[in-house]
Design a protein that fits this description.
By secondary structure, the chain is α/β, with parallel strands linked by helices. The protein has nine helices and eleven strands. Helix content is 33%, strand content 22%. Strand 3 (71-77) and strand 4 form a beta hairpin. Bound molecules: guanosine-5'-triphosphate (GTP) and magnesium ion (MG).
Length: 325
């Protein structure tokens, strides 16, 4: 597998670009397109991107607002290359970080060839869905309706939901699927493969993400942090990879800093006798090692940055534009 520049082989994401893998099948009449997935927080956008790509490229938690920046996951289907853009959940933004996330999500939609609009089958046409549908008229690209989490509801109610959603916006097609079980994901992928524009592939054939490994590694740690501390720790934390060093024995030494907004949060992340951070580190280390296919030595530090939400540098690291106010 391959993610970002310099991912395979050397497993160092700071190095020069790798030799290009063969692009697209030879002599092919190829297609390639960008598909943005938008929707309310927690509808399953990241889970769907991972299912379409067949590997984890975007972190998933049961909390809303997990995804912060655009994450690209790349899949191939026959002679088509599909570049999925996972976006932060769209909601009523309050505060600088939230505004940056929502602007990023709509920006992702406007830059794509096709826009997939996700609706949570269980939530149905709620206020959040209404808000998004209301703004879809401004999106010129072809839109497809994706009703997710069908494993949680009875079939008859799905058809009624699909009909009322189609009455609100012009969708080129409707899919009902479960990103979690994979049910219906193949149909969506095949349809997209036939509808993205003709053209050469943008990425090497074996690339699954354009995110540098050090960003993905930071995201994995953020996921473990959220999963363990979902009640105690709100959104006041971010993770940065400070050091990534390949050692002679083939293992990788990674240093990361978890930024929190208050001293009380720092104590929560550390836990009694450092137990919590140790457990988070163990979870993250295991998953990062599986992703990069090398042993990992992970060192986590926790720092208090009271106003990290106002620090442009943190936004740059997260791949977000820093809103002026
Ligand atoms: N039952 C069920 N749960 C799902 C499905 N898809 C996603 N989930 C769950 O829904 C929760 C949110 O999933 P995410 O993929 O993080 O959702 P998201 O839309 O990316 O969320 P944000 O990044 O916060 O906007 C997780 O607990 C997933 O396991 C599905 O098809 N069925
Ligand atoms: Mg997400």
């Amino acid at each position: 597998m391959r993610t970002g520049v310099g991912a395979p082989g050397k497993r160092d994401d700071s190095a020069a670009p790798q030799a290009q893998a063969p692009a697209a099948p030879p002599g092919g009449d190829t297609r390639c397109g960008f598909i943005a997935l938008i929707g309310a927080p927690n509808v399953g956008k990241s889970t769907l991107v991972n299912a379409l790509v067949g590997s984890k490229v975007s972190i998933v938690t049961h909390k809303v607002q997990t995804t912060r920046a655009l994450v690209r996951g790349i899949a191939t289907a026959g002679s088509a290359q599909l570049v999925f853009i996972d976006t932060p959940g769209i909601f009523a933004p309050r505060g600088r970080l939230n505004r940056a996330m929502v602007a990023t999500a709509w920006g992702g939609a406007h830059d794509a060839d096709i826009v997939g609009v996700l609706i949570d089958a269980r939530q149905g046409l709620d206020a959040e869905a209404e808000t998004i549908l209301g703004k879809l008229a401004e999106v010129r690209q072809p839109k497809v309706l994706i009703i997710n989490k069908i494993d949680l509801v009875a079939r008859p109610s799905l058809l009624a939901l699909a009909a009322s959603l189609n009455a609100r916006a012009a969708f080129a097609a409707t899919f009902m699927l479960s990103a979690l079980t994979g049910d219906g994901v193949g149909d969506l992928k095949s349809w997209l493969a036939e509808h993205v524009p003709r053209g050469p592939w943008h990425y090497p054939a074996d690339e699954i993400s354009d995110a540098p490994l050090r960003s993905l590694a930071a995201e994995v740690t953020r996921e473990k942090l959220y999963l363990r501390l979902h009640e105690e720790l709100p959104y006041q934390s971010t993770v940065a990879t400070d050091q990534w060093k390949e050692l002679n024995d083939g293992s990788v030494r990674i240093e990361q800093t978890i930024y929190v907004a208050r001293e009380s949060q720092r104590r929560i992340v550390l836990g009694k006798g450092g137990q919590t951070i140790k457990a988070i580190g163990a979870d993250a280390r295991r998953e990062i090692a599986a992703i990069i296919e090398a042993p990992v030595h992970l060192f986590l530090f926790v720092k208090v940055r009271e106003r990290w939400g106002d620090d442009p540098e943190r936004y740059r690291e997260m791949g977000l534009e820093f809103p002026k106010e």
